[in-house]
Specification:
The structure is a homodimer. Chain A is built from 16 helices and 23 strands. The first copy, chain A, has about 525 residues and is of the alpha/beta class. Chain A has a 7-stranded mixed beta sheet with strand order 15-17-18-13-12-19-20, with helices on both faces. Chain A has a 5-stranded mixed beta sheet with strand order 21-6-5-22-23, with no helix packed on it. In chain A, strands 9-8-7-10-11 form a 5-stranded parallel beta sheet, sandwiched between helices. Chains A, B: It holds the Pfam family Aldedh.
Chain lengths: ~525, ~525
């Protein structure tokens, strides 16, 4: 299938614009197939209008209908076959196993939401029956459930061209919730996006979902992106990317006549506290962490960018071993020239700060747009005094902070910003001693891990991917796992509503047999 | 007990400031007992510091401990006896049955949260056990639950001096969640607030909660309020009041280094769609609505400020009967001079708009600071063209909009802003015909009612009090009912955490016997 480069305005392909962009091979600087036509104002406007009209139909679809729709999207993505994998590898410079894995994750995610919808209880149906005889006042019949919030705007991430992109977690959870989606394609993998959008539109048609349930447009964030977020039709925004990009959307959303939630996952430095008992076990620790720092060329928002330690006789050995491990890992091509340049610049700036010691840097030559694994160290006082050192450097870089004692460690943790993850390495008995700093770490992150590495985010019910600001704009929600659906719904209460007019989830007979809270008791029974 | 007028800086009374305010009898202009000393910068700072220190202890309290604490607050409020009721009546000009009822609601609310905590399942404990053998990658043990967000700032409302004030729904839900609270007292009922704060502090001491779990300060929103909201220690804000006040807090919160959620419930005009079959039943409808428009001198955020009708042969009769009902209801004293003046001004401005007809106005003389029941009408076109007519007029006023037909009604609903409630009156068979406009109303409100009146907000599991902007700043949360606790918690995921370090809610043995989702199944079993 050849790439047409057009915008998906609902089910209709459209290319009225006169601006376009191509994607270039990072190694040869030759353009890949496909010229992507930026959407015009009118095209974006039409996509929004269609989405709004679709909403009033789509929101009334049953959970089962939406589940089958999501499964059809997953099937259509698999039907794209190797063409998708080849294009994604080319655009992202990520290796085949990673991309095949990411495709598996993407369709797995769609099917996970389908299974959530088939079970159905996630809507939190809650019923308090009427008490007409109650004194001094009778109680009305009150029934509440989560209902879709409206049209959702999704911005593709660059580092997960499938799983956090066109049919990624934001789109899957919004569609599952009953919200139409408008995706702004990322300029670094627009071919991948086009293939995925084609699959989604096939599914829209096969599943008889209304035209406008899904749209995807090309163009820059400043024009197309801004136009979407500022439009009153849009009720929520999903974004994964840089702090700068996320905060721009957040500000735009708050300037609107009606402010809307922006769910921006903006990354973090993911502090890893390596307690003395773990430092002692230096061989294992060094290879485990060198591997986590460099996996995927460090291009994960859960990359361990900060290692917290306490000075003791074993720390020097651990530092030496960690440097050696880092030295022997080959640099690899990054996602794009832009990302590689930002990595080099950020690293150079960090290493030039007062009090920073370069511990190790890969000594293997590789490609041009490489991310060179690097580890540095700093003492706690210098770290605390210099906020520059608290910033994320997106790539295979980590900074080891040496604290004098538990007290200083506690001060270091107190000055950390919000994080996606925090990790504690050590023996269980030792952790009791560090209970307060662990509690303080927990209070600063969305996920706290024990004796593991933060890279690798499981897609499941129990995942929390998000965290206190600036890791994410809203710590109360996750962008990974079934909980992600909560971002795009709001509770609506129906008072004394005739049974025939109630959503199935709230009807007397509980036709979906979902778990509900009825008169303060959890039950699947009918009334 | 005589009123000291001091600030509650945690458990310590403090009055270092040189500014103060008194509260005046609306009828005699004589001051009531008590001079309320505004908190100084240093006092506010200390309250914040204490709250932050208390948080790390309080967040680790068990649900049962917090339940008993809330029950003790309720008991201590009842122990204040009639002194509280007398003072609240004096400060609010609300009648005794209303204030006694509101006290009942306030302690009922505290006990409701206590019972929620004793049951315990609201934390949404979710467990996905490790799958060490899974291919291609093993799964870690992942456990998630809702954890307290941090220190919460509460702004008292003027119209509910007990239920939306010092120990009202915001405070009760934040304390239930595990968050320390700092209340800014409302200047119109500071004596009531002092009595309640005294009761809370007694409960803090009796329950051995840390000093700083609760503070209350006097002072203006511009100084004391702003200082609290801008302080990085505060993690969320609860507010009920005017659009202007709520939006000021919302803007401040978004200007911070770390933006925080502001839950501002800012009222609405609560459209009531009276379908032809209900209009026909004009006697009942007229008395029901006249009563809802004027109850509590119209000082409810759920007051029916907008009545939507379709022209037919019965509408003139209904209008006439509604006017007659309104004419014979006596004006009554409003909460304060300020509120009464705003009501008069707003009403005068509304009635002077082009195309507005005054249908009826109470013809009974009463006190000076009275709210005079008033009903006006307008045709749909004029209403749609003039946004001035969509604004809330806080008091016993309502505007009846006459639409030509279903199509025009639909256009009117399309141009309405977000609402706390929407109401549909009519026969069930008729509602089927109006299904689309009802769906559109539902999409614009937090609670949709059938054949009732929006005034009267039940405190229960199924209540949703909130709605799309500008009714509230965040439609995804409620400020009334058990759901209110969700505002002050965030999910935290524990990965491979040793059982001994897990919160009780997530431990293998499920000691609290709460309902959890374990490996995708709802269960109260241990692992």
């Amino acid at each position: 299938m050849s790439l047409h480069g057009k915008n998906f305005i609902g089910n209709v392909l459209s290319s009225n614009g006169n601006q376009s962009s191509k994607i270039y091979d990072i190694n040869t600087n030759e353009p890949f197939e496909g010229e992507f036509i930026h959407a015009t104002k009118e095209e974006v406007e039409l996509a929004l209008k269609k989405a709004n009209e679709a909403f009033f139909i789509y929101k009334e679809s049953s959970q089962l209908q939406r589940a089958e729709f999501l499964e059809t999207i997953a099937d259509e993505i698999m039907n794209l076959g190797d063409e998708l994998v080849v294009r994604t590898i080319a655009e992202s410079n990520l290796p085949r196993p990673r991309i095949e894995g990411e495709r598996g994750r993407t369709v797995g995610q769609l099917r996970m939401f389908a299974s959530l919808l088939k079970e159905g209880s996630w809507v939190e149906a809650t019923i308090d029956e009427a008490l007409p005889e109650r004194k001094p006042l009778p109680r009305n019949d009150l029934r509440k459930m989560l209902r879709p919030i409206g049209v959702v705007s999704v911005f593709e991430a660059s580092n997960f061209p499938l799983a956090f992109a066109c049919a990624g977690g934001d789109t899957a959870s919004a569609l599952a919730a009953g919200c139409p989606v408008i995706v702004k394609a990322h300029s670094s993998h627009s071919g991948t996006s086009e293939l995925i959008a084609t699959a989604i539109i096939k599914a829209v048609k096969k599943s008889n979902m209304p035209d406008g349930t899904f749209s995807m447009v090309h163009g820059s964030g400043r024009t197309v992106g801004q136009q979407i977020v500022l439009n009153e039709i849009v009720k929520a925004v999903g974004f994964t990317g840089s702090t700068q990009g996320g905060m721009k959307l957040f500000e735009l959303a708050n300037q609107r006549k009606t402010p809307i939630p922006v769910f921006a996952e903006m990354g973090s430095i993911n502090p890893c506290l390596i307690l003395p008992s773990a430092v002692k076990n230096s061989d294992n620790m060094a290879s485990l962490y060198a591997s986590s720092i460099t996996v995927g060329v460090g291009q994960f928002c859960t990359n361990p960018g900060l290692i917290l330690t306490i000075k003791d006789e074993n720390l020097e050995i651990f530092k030496e071993k960690l440097s050696k491990e880092i030295n022997k890992i080959a640099p690899a091509t990054m996602l794009s020239h832009g990302i590689q340049e930002a990595y080099e610049k950020g690293k150079k700036e960090a290493l030039s700060q007062k009090g920073i010691t370069l511990l190790g840097e890969s000594n293997i030559k590789n490609t041009k747009a490489e991310g060179r694994p690097t580890i540095a160290s700093v003492d706690a006082k210098t770290f605390m005094e210099n906020p520059k050192l608290h910033e994320e450097i997106f790539g295979p870089y980590s900074l080891l902070v040496e604290c004098e004692d538990l007290k200083e460690l506690s001060l270091v943790i107190d000055c950390l910003e919000g994080q996606l993850t925090a990790t504690v390495m050590g023996e269980e008995t030792e952790m009791i001693k560090y209970k307060e700093v662990i509690s303080s770490l927990e209070n600063r992150c969305g996920r706290i891990l024990f004796n593991g590495v933060p890279t690798g985010v499981e897609v499941c019910h129990s995942m929390q991917h998000g965290g206190p600001f600036p890791a994410a704009t809203d710590s109360r929600f996750t962008s990974v796992g079934t909980g992600a659906i909560r971002r795009f719904v709001r509770p609506v209460c129906f008072q004394d509503c005739p049974n025939s007019l109630l959503p199935n989830e709230l009807k007397d007979e509980n036709p979906l047999k979902i778990l509900r809270i009825v008169n303060e008791k959890y039950t699947r029974e009918s009334l």
